[in-house]
C-alpha cells in the first residue's frame, strides 16, 4: 500500500537547511557569572566564519532556563549585531522561546522577534508532566504558533522535558499549522524522522536531527540538517558533512561523519564537557583565556580533571579535519 503524501501547502517562510549550532552561553569570571556579551560576539562570528548555516540561541546548550528575560534579549541583539557586522545581516538566528506556560512562551517569542531573531524554537511544557495530555500538548503548540511573530520550530528532547516525547502522529498534526515549519529531533529517533519525511516535503515541514553524529543518516532519510552542540567546538567539520553531502560527495561525507560521530560522544555526556571543549579548543583563538568563561552557570559545576582529559582525547580526533577546512569570508554587504 502506498503512503499518502501530505497535501498541506508549502510554508511561506522556511528555516534554511543545513547545520546549526545551539550556541553556549559565556559568562564573566565573577561570582554572579554575568553574561559576557563581548565573548559571545566573538564566538558568534567564529561560528559563522566556520561555515555554520545558522545559529540557535537560548536552547539547551545555551542554558536557557538559567537566563533572565533581559539576558535573553541582550544575547540575541548581540548575535544580530555580530552577523550584521560580518556583512550577513539576514543570517538565520533561531531563538529558544520555551516557557512553562503558553503566555510565557508567547512573550518570549515577541521578545525574540524584537531582538532580531529569525525563527523560534519551542520545547513542550513539562513542569507537571502528568498533566501534559495530548490535547494540552497540541493546544500549547497551536496557541503559541498562532501568536508568535516568528515561524516556530518544534523542539523534541525528552531528556529535558520529564520524558515528554512528541510522537510522529503529534508532529504530523502540528505540521499542518501554517506557522510551524520544522522539528528538531533530539530524541534521536531516526524512525520518527523517516515517518515524517515520507509524508512531508521540506517546503511543507522540515526535519532536523538533534546532533551531528547521525547527520548523514538524517540527510539520506530525507531530513535537511541538524542542530549540534559539536558546532561550538568544531564548526567547520560539522558543517562540512552537510556541504559534502549536498555536493554529491557522499563517500567523503560518510568518512567525515564517522570522525564527527566519535568526537560528539563527549557532547552526549554533558553540557559541561561541550563547554569545556569549546574553551580548550576554541577559547585561545578568540582571546578568551579564562576557563571560567566556559563554565556552566551555578549551581552546575565544571567537569573534574579526569573528564577534562577524557574530553580532550575524544574531541581531539576532529582537530586535524577542522584545520584542513578554510574559514569563510564575507565581503561587506554580501
Automatic annotation (TrEMBL):
GO terms assigned for molecular function: 4-hydroxy-tetrahydrodipicolinate synthase activity
InterPro entries membership: Aldolase_TIM, DapA-like
CDD domains in alphabetical order: DHDPS-like (cd00408)
SMART domains, per database record: DHDPS
Cited SUPFAM superfamilies: Aldolase (SSF51569)
Protein name, per record: Dihydrodipicolinate synthase
Species: Melanomma pulvis-pyrius CBS 109.77
Taxonomic lineage: Eukaryota, Fungi, Dikarya, Ascomycota, Pezizomycotina
